[in-house]
Amino acid sequence: MTGTETSVLREMRWWDIDSVLELERDLFPEDAWSRGMFWSELAHSRGPGATRRYVVAEEDGRIVGYAGLTTSGAESDSDGGGAPAADVQTITVTRDHWGTGLGSRLLTELLRAATAFECTEVLLECRIDNVRAQKLYERFGFETIGVRRGYYQPGNVDALVMRLTDPSTSVNPANPGNGVQGTETHG
């Protein structure tokens, strides 16, 4: 069994970056994130001022997936600037875990984090040629609201902009409790 049954979700930490980079380069050779990008994201994922949530899926000591979310607007909310929004930065699952439900578990955790951050909507960009991911997002209630031409470089691939309103009402019905290990979203 793989994916849903045996993978453990936990908070991503700095010592996971090398394994995550290997997976990133394997699955996204043209537009892989850099080490610095991951360090920067993780720097904002802990403590009372946290604005990020990154998790990894680990199975038998191997990283088999990861996902991350960022929030904006939380500070301005107390000033009357509106409720915060979240943006799914990445969701990645190894090829041998495609179709196992692991992507749904990772997305469920990101939506829980968005709810904990009190976000009223979640946005994301999805490669226009990534039908598998589009179907996952649609199952969770995301709707296409636009297209960003040439968003993914250097391949000049368009991105669908997708939005989910009220992430607190969208949970993975197949696995409502995923048991993520690690610190709470804000600490």
Strand order of the largest sheet: 1-2-3-4-5-7-6
The value of Rg in angstroms is 16 Å
Low-confidence stretches: 75-80, 172-187
Distance between the termini: 32 Å
Total beta strands: 7
Q: In this structure, how is the largest beta sheet organized? A: 7 strands, mixed
Order of helices and strands: EHHEEHEHEHEE
Strand content: 25-35%
Indicate the percent of residues in helices: 25-40%
Which of globular, elongated, flat, extended, rod-shaped describes the shape? globular
Count of DSSP-assigned helices: 5
On the 0-100 scale, what is the average pLDDT?
85
Oligomeric description of these chains: single chain
Could you describe the 3D structure shown?
This protein has 187 residues and is an alpha+beta fold. It has 5 helices and 7 strands. It has helices at residues 17-27, 35-43, 74-77, 102-116, 131-139, and strands spanning 8-11, 52-59, 62-72, 85-93, 121-127, 143-152, 157-165. Strands 1-2-3-4-5-7-6 form a 7-stranded mixed β-sheet, sandwiched between helices. β2 (52-59) and β3 form a beta hairpin. The termini are far apart. The model is unreliable at 75-80 and 172-187 (pLDDT under 50).
Give keywords:
single chain; 7-stranded mixed sheet; alpha+beta; 5 helices; disordered C terminus; 187 residues
